[in-house]
Every structure is written in C-alpha cells, then in structure tokens.
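[SOLVED] Need 3D model of a two-part complex

Original post:
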Amino acid sequence: GNSVTQMEGPVTLSEEAFLTINCTYTATGYPSLFWYVQYPGEGLQLLLKATKADDKGSNKGFEATYRKETTSFHLEKGSVQVSDSAVYFCALSRISSGSARQLTFGSGTQLTVLP
Amino acid sequence: ETGVTQSPTHLIKTRGQQVTLRCSSQSGHNTVSWYQQALGQGPQFIFQYYREEENGRGNFPPRFSGLQFPNYSSELNVNALELDDSALYLCASTPAGGNSPLHFGNGTRLTVT
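Solution:
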C-alpha cells in the first residue's frame, strides 16, 4: 500500500539556520506530493506541492523537489525564522476506490526555531 | 472567501456515547473529506463525500458514518465511542476533480473518557 516516512523529530534550530526535513514515500503509480504545516491549535495548511517527477514546489522560502528515482520529497529552507516553528507533514495523494482523492500523511516533524 | 469551519471546537464524551461533528465547506467546494489525527500522529483518512454520497473510505469501522447536505456541508457521526476515538477530527474541502489541494478546517478536539 501507499505510505510516507518522515524524518523523526523534534528538530530544534537557531534562527537563520538551514533546514532539511526528509520525506520518502512508497506508492503505486504517480502520486502528487505535498507538504502541509500545522501551527499550534490549528488545522493543516498547504505549504507546497508537486504533481510530477522533477517538479519543484516552493512557497515562503520553503522548497521541495519530487524525486521519482529516490522516491523522495525533502523539505528545505535556507534560513529559518522563529515564526516557522510548527509541525510539518509530508503527504501523498492518490485516487482510492470509488474515485475519492485520499491523502496519506507521514507522522509529522516538530520544528522549533530559537531566537 | 469563507474557509472551512468546524463545530464544536472541543467536545468531551463518555465511552459508549454517540457524537456528531459538523463541517461547512469552503465556498465553491463540493467535496468534503474527514480525517482523524491522534495525538502526535499524522491525519488518517476516514471518508470522502461528493454529491451527498460517500465515494471513498479509509480503514475505519462502520460506526464511523457521515452525511453531506445539498449545501455541501457535512457531518461525521461516531457511535459507541471508544477511548481510542479521542483525537482531533479534521474536515477538508476541495472542488471536485483535478488535483486541487485540500483546504482544512481547524478541527474538533474529541476526548472520550
């Protein structure tokens, strides 16, 4: 079946440090890949996405490249800010039986950025 | 535009009871999905509704059921609550078809005692 494996947290960085959160996936076919972010007490917000191999998703300084050969979608940011502190989820999208579009999530990575 | 709204925000129930959670989808979105997020875990797909019918279901027992109304709002019902049902329940909406991203509400925190 489909699955997503994320780098385990928590991750603690100083402001302006470089961030990488690893994500690998197992899926049949060609899923779309996403990064979602969850701030305390809130739901999930889409951070970026990529729908085919070699696509690069980017938003708010975050980037991730869809690597089919390594089945990976690692999240990177060159210089993190305190406001980036949140839980980050990698996810893949597939069409389930009955034509529903279903997201499969990783377990999340807690990021804390210290001033 | 109005985003996805869920009610209530918090709820405490006793084992064996039944609960109904509500969701209003984002304007223009006719597809609604529900997810269960246990503490410290990623969300898990419960089911999806399109045109008032369930068109996909995850690995959840039949005591998890839902409805979608003509205005695309939705309910999640859980019967015979168990302690393990304690979680954040997230509703997400999207336009039908294509690869549009899901828009999530802030969730309902259910505690079963």
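Edit: Residues 32 and 57 of chain A are 11 Å apart (CA to CA).
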